[in-house]
Structure formats: C-alpha cells, structure tokens
Write a structure and sequence with these properties.
Blueprint lengths: L8 H52 L3 E6 L4 E6 L10 E7 L18 E4 L2 E6 L5 E3 L2 E7 L2 E7 L5 E6 L4 E3 L2
Antiparallel strand pairs: 1-2, 1-5, 2-3, 4-5, 5-6, 7-8, 8-9, 9-10
C-alpha cells in the first residue's frame, strides 16, 4: 500500500469550490450578455423583415405588410394579394423574437407607434414603389438592461438607434 498516490478528499473539495466560484462568476456576466445579444438579434430581425416587406412589395408590384405582434413576439411579412382586406393576405415570412426581449421605451410614449391593426398587432404597409403607404413609426425594444429602436420613414428608409442613458443615438 505504500507508494500509492492519489488525491485527498480535502484537495478534491478545494478544486470543486474553486471551479464553482469560477462558474458562478462566468454565469453572472453571461446572463446579461445573452440578453443583450437577444436584443441585438431582435432589432436586426425587425429591420430585416421591414426591408424584406419593402423588397417584396417592389418585386411583386403590389402592397406588402410588415406585421409585429407584441404579445407573442412574432414578426411576419405578408403579401396583400392586391386587396385591402387582411383576410386574404399571403404569409411570406414569419419569425419569433427572443423571449428575453420586451417592447418598452425609457422615455415617454408608446413602445410601438406603427399602425395599430388590433390590440397588440401593428403593421407597416409598403407600396409597390417601396414607399410606406401606412404605418410609419417606431418599434422600441428592451433587453439586457439596454434599449434600442427601429424607425421606419415614409420614403421606406429604416434606422436603428440606441438609448445612451439620456437620448437616442445613431450607431454604437
């Protein structure tokens, strides 16, 4: 039995304690980081789907709608089929935003100022020339202790802004 080597229970407990502390430290910083990445992803998804609705409207030569449902965190692009009725719209694209993202703004006003279809459903409708026919406005989102917004203009332009603590700023 002499000459056998191994680790003692005390050494094993010390290694486990150090590993637990390291894991706790990483987890403390990872959770807010994941939420911030979820916000960034959601903002770019909203921007992309708005641009997609605009491109589809131009290529199909008829109105297309960008729709956001704030209660389900779902965004979609629909072809209006050339009619004003929403019942015959054709679903082109659909995606869910991360659960870590909510619709809120740090300053006063509504979190979503697009055209309200009903309840928690909002839309922007792009014409066949790429210009917004209905629903210019903003979508404000919160995640990971940060606020960002996507703004759509009448000419079809889309801009992302971040809240710097006192005002909205373009860029990073």
């Amino acid at each position: 039995m002499n000459g056998q080597r191994g680790i003692t229970l005390t050494e094993l407990l010390i290694v486990l304690a150090v590993a637990s502390l390291a894991l706790l430290a990483v987890g403390t910083y990872a959770v807010p980081w994941i939420a911030r990445e979820g916000l960034r992803s959601a903002v770019y998804d909203v921007q992309t789907y708005m641009q997609l609705a605009r491109i589809e409207a131009i290529s199909r030569n008829r109105d297309c709608r960008f729709v956001i449902d704030t209660s389900t965190n779902r965004i979609s692009v629909l072809d209006t089929a050339g009619t004003t009725s929403v019942g015959d719209d054709i679903l082109l694209y659909e995606s869910d935003l991360p659960d870590t993202v909510s619709f809120a703004r740090p300053d006063s006003g509504a979190a979503v100022t697009l055209d309200n279809v009903s309840g928690s459903i909002y839309q922007t409708r792009f014409g066949n020339d790429g210009i917004v026919n209905l629903g210019t406005g903003m979508v404000h989102m919160f995640g990971g202790s940060k606020y960002e917004k996507v703004e759509v203009f009448g000419a079809g332009g889309i801009r992302i802004q971040k809240w710097n603590g006192t005002a909205w700023a373009v860029g990073s």
